[in-house]
Amino acid sequence: MPIYEFQAIDEDKSCEYCKSGFELLMKFSDPHLVICPKCGNQIGKKVSVTSVGSSKSGFDARAKAAGFHKLKKLGKGEYEKKY
Ligand SMILES: [Zn+2]
After folding, report:
1. CA of residue 21 to ligand 1 center, whole Å
2. Is residue 48 part of a domain?
3. What is the domain range of residue 61?
4. CA 8 to ligand 1 center in whole angstroms
5. Closest listed residue to residue 4, CA positions, set 40, 44, 36
6. How far is the CA of 50 from the centre of ligand 1 (A)?
7. 76 falls within a domain
8. Per-residue pLDDT tens over the stretch 39-72
9. Which residues make up the environment of ion ligand 1, defined by Cβ < 5 Å?
10. What separation in Å is there between the alpha carbon of 13 and the centre of ligand 1?
11. Any idea which of 2-6, 11-15, 17-21 has the lowest mean pLDDT?
12. Distance, CA 72 to ligand 1 centroid (Å)?
């Protein structure tokens, strides 16, 4: 489950709670929070600390960076025989 960090967009109008930012654990199915639950001013999502399967290209890039190799199918019906 991802943890979202929220912070006030307009710090002048915000309360102490959202001015310094706060973290919320949210389900993917939960609606995204757009206003502070305390003062009702607009807040923005800062970072998601954990994200699961965000995008395929992103995963490939991360896997490459981590030193993983992707196996490629050579062609139709072409596989390397191991035995
Ligand atoms: Zn607030």
Report:
1. 9
2. yes
3. 3-65
4. 7
5. 44
6. 24
7. no
8. 999 999 875 555 554 555 666 777 777 777 666 6
9. 14-15, 17-18, 36, 38-39
10. 8
11. 2-6
12. 51
Can you give the pLDDT at residue 7? 92
In 3D space, the residue among 67, 18, 66, 76 whose CA is nearest the CA of residue 4 turns out to be 18
- In the chain, the amino acid numbered 3 is I
Residue written as token pair 């915000």: 14
For tokens 């050579």, name the residue.
74
Distance 38 CA to ligand 1 centre (A): 5
Per-residue confidence (pLDDT) for residue 78, from 0 to 100: 67
What is the number of structural domains in the chain? 1
Residue 41 lies in a domain: yes
Residue 32 CA to ligand 1 center (angstroms) comes to: 16
Rg (CA), the chain: 21
Q: Does residue 54 belong to any structural domain of this protein?
A: yes
Query: Model-level pTM greater than 0.70?
Result: no
